[in-house]
Amino acid sequence: MLCSVLLREGINHIQCLEKDLQEWMKTHEYESVTQMQGTMSQLNCPNPSAFERAQYMKALQTYNPDSGTVYTGS
Known about the structure:
Blueprint: H1 2-9, H2 13-27, H3 33-36, H4 48-62, E1 63-64, E2 69-70
Antiparallel strand pairs: 1-2
């Protein structure tokens, strides 16, 4: 996805992406990218089984048999 944006908008778009990321991090009280890493992982989930089940259900619900791919929309 990032590569597509850069191909479409040009390499200078990285500055805009960085600014947006910094604003988002400030809003969500993250001081660094390292601090964000893994916060949404199964290992940090209070109920790992529920997390795994939710991911499985999402994959089933978004499967498109015509394309053979899974829609990963935002």
